[in-house]
Amino acid sequence: MSDLNTHQFHFTIGPVQGFVAQARRTRDFWAGSFILSWLAGCAMVATRNQGGEIQFPAPDEDFINAIKNGQSGPTQGTLPNRFKALVDAEFNPQHVIQQMNQAWLTLAEKVYQADIADKANPKTREIWQRQVEGFFEVSWVMTEADDNRPLLDMRKNWRHHFPHTESGHKCSLMEGWQELSGIEGFYASDNKKRKNFWQAIQSKIGTRDLIENEALCALSFIKRRFAYHFEQVKLVGFNGWKLEPRNVPSVALLAAMPVLKSIQPSPELEKFKQAWSEAGGQKGETKSLPKALRTKTDLGLDGIAWFSNTYENPTSYGLNKEKIPTAKQALTALYQSQNLKEPSPFYAILMMDGDSLGKQMSDPSKQPLITAGLNKFTSGVKEVVDQHDGFLIYAGGDDVLAILTLETALDCAVALRQSYIDSFLNLTGHEQLTTSISAAIIYAHIKTPLSKILHDSHHVLDEAAKDQAGRDALAVQVVKQSGKHLLWAQPWQQAFDEQGALKIEKLAKQFAGQSTAQQLDGDALEASTKFFYGIREYFNRLIDAKKPFNQDDAQLIGDLLAVDYIKSGVNNVKEIEIAKQRIQPLLAQCTPHKRNDEVSVNRLAQAEISVIGAPQIDGALLVRFLAFHGRDIRGQNQ
Length: 638
Prior knowledge:
By secondary structure, the chain is an alpha+beta fold. It has helices at about 15-20, 25-50, 60-70, 95-115, 120-135, 150-155, 190-205, 220-230, 250-260, 265-280, 290-295, 325-335, 355-360, 365-385, 410-425, 450-470, 490-495, 505-510, 530-540, 550-565, 575-590, 620-630; strands at about 5-15, 55, 80-85, 135-145, 235, 240, 345-355, 390-395, 400-405, 435-445, 475-480, 485-490, 595, 610.
């Protein structure tokens, strides 16, 4: 630390959710996160150029060096939108803002000139300039170095950013923003002009980046197309680098991944690929596949190709109606020839966030520990996500955002939690820290709007995992096409068994018949689907939400379910006490618990846990969902 740096500079850029979460595709989602990281990185570089020292969080130096040198760099955002630096008294914050804005305007102009300019009308340029120049909101505070008041948060409450009013037809992706044609009328002739404008853009950039009837604002268009032009951004000390826009998997490909891993080269596979191509299907996800699948065989068809319901509505996907029956038959023949089920249409979004770090950061003595621990944690997140066949959207500070398959999301969350704990336990002085990490997993149907899922993720993490379960917790929500199906949350301590495995996952395997009682310590839950529906009936009939749930109520429900378990006819249990033992783990996962205290990072397993209410059906529904991978009782996709 330089003796001259006697002041603190606090910086933040937003809106994060308004830019990142308004996404139709996973690539929109990734792009918003990456661009925000890059802009925060440009601000960090500009701060250092004035002699500033980034104090928190420790920046990803690979990302910073890529901005400065522009030769190659990370493909995921790793820099948070907020940082603190030590600076001298002559530091000029406005110079940082100006340089960051110049980087943003340069990137936007590269996209405009390459993709829009020769198709634009005067109104298009006006809209572009207005939206690009007026979107991001930057707040900063400069104080003396020993001032620990939350001044940046106070500054953000002082509204100073007033976006322009947007008129006309609105963007298909970002709510409330005018689309770029600028043709505002509602007559048929206006609609035709608007359609012609976007068809001209589509003919230039292709149907993969602009589907039929999409009309985008400047911000959405930049998210959709920036990766093609990013490496052309060359300013003094602020650069882009080569990105591969097609390495971001679609949600359909992620949902299909577990089945794709089992597909073997065969004549049936070749016939299907040929039929898909003749039906007008695209092949654009080869680079989105894990490396092992890229070399195994050519499975890089669009993710939707692997789902039979795609062929029931071919015009939505630009497919040839006359060729569709042949393609669908070829897909069915492929699955039958290799004894495979059609993929489940569910994928997962994993969001994780460190607990109580902001509160501890107000203590200057803990800041170096926290910085070192987070730096170690974030540097290993991508490897963990890759090992679980996922795609990392963002890992920076104590935040993680990734998309995964239904089969791997829970295991990935467990692995990342352990990595987080280990990152701090290896530091001298870790006993001072009471941090932990909470996780939210959203299992979503591939036809559910992505922006809704991203919005839900924050609520599930903040309200279910942190507020309801008391932090250091896991919350899971399932969203079907019909809407929210279940919401379950438990402290990690309650969710794990003695071997560190997730009890809910173990129950699902037992219910699915994937493990025998002997393999699972003799207490396996062998039950029928009817038994699970009976649980809902008992909960509805016997639990009065207006009265406190007591031990007598729990005893009665346990006795009745034990009788039903014996009567289910799918196990050999004849004694009531043994039946009670078998169903107890399921009832425990249906019963909400909360962590009551914050303990140091080396004592997380010793935190006090208590029951906070009556059993809820969501735990049983989650067991059933995981057991059947989101399919119905007949094994059919829903």
